[in-house]
């Protein structure tokens, strides 16, 4: 999934982003309200983790504009204040969930994953196709019961392909949803990652290349 972390405390933002990347997510950062809106307009995020107290444009206004602008991204609002009144106010602005600071990182990850499932057609918690099984919450993938040693990007690509349930996923969509904005759209990154994933999945081949369209799981 692709996540935008909006937090003006740079050290905290980098810490959260680093942790989410280790969970296999593609993460972009914004340190103020205007940058958050600009990136949300350009990129298709599954979840926006939004601090409420932002410079430039307040987090409340960012949330309101995201909710009113037709963005498919789900908004998880963060704030140092955890009163009932603040939670009600945040949800009233269009936020999908609310998490007071300080928070446990494991809870943040669980809430992001839950929101991401709501940002797209509902999928089962464990993805299964034939002998292939992938559990996003446990970060486990296996074929015929044998564990697959996948890198975070390989895991993310396989999750997207399995989530498509046999439909073709374009190279552009894989790049957009499994990599962050630092990825070069003209590189061979997706092709190389799919090639490595194919080798790890073993025989017979499971990933099919559809000419001029993308990839799908057989």
Automatic annotation (TrEMBL):
Keyword Transmembrane helix among UniProt keywords: no
Record has Phosphoprotein as a keyword: yes
Segments of the chain annotated as binding DNA: 124-218
Sites of 4-aspartylphosphate modification: 51
InterPro entries registered for this protein in UniProt: CheY-like_superfamily, OmpR/PhoB-type_DNA-bd, Sig_transdc_resp-reg_C-effctor, Sig_transdc_resp-reg_receiver, WalR-like, WH-like_DNA-bd_sf
CDD domains linked to this entry: trans_reg_C
Name of the protein described by the UniProt record: Response regulator transcription factor
Organism of provenance: Streptomyces spinosisporus
């Amino acid at each position: 999934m692709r996540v935008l972390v909006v937090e003006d405390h740079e050290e905290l933002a980098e810490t959260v982003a680093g942790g989410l990347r280790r969970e296999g997510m593609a993460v972009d950062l914004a340190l103020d309200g205007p940058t958050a809106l600009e990136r949300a307009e350009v990129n298709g995020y599954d979840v926006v983790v939004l601090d409420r107290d932002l410079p430039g444009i307040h987090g409340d206004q960012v949330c309101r504009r995201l909710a009113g602008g037709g963005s498919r991204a789900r908004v998880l609002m963060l704030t140092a204040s955890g009163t009932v009144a603040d939670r009600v106010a945040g949800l009233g602005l269009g936020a999908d969930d609310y998490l007071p600071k300080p928070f446990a990182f494991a809870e943040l990850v669980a809430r992001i994953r839950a929101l991401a499932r709501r940002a797209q057609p509902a999928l089962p918690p464990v993805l299964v196709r034939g002998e292939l099984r992938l559990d996003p919450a446990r970060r486990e993938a296996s074929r015929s019961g044998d564990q697959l040693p996948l890198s975070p990007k390989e895991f993310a690509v396989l999750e997207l392909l399995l989530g498509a349930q046999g439909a073709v996923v374009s190279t552009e969509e894989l790049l957009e949803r499994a990599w962050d904005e630092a990825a070069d759209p003209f590189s061979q990154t997706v092709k190389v990652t799919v090639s490595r994933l194919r080798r790890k999945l073993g025989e017979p081949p499971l990933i099919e290349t559809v000419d001029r369209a993308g990839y799908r799981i057989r």
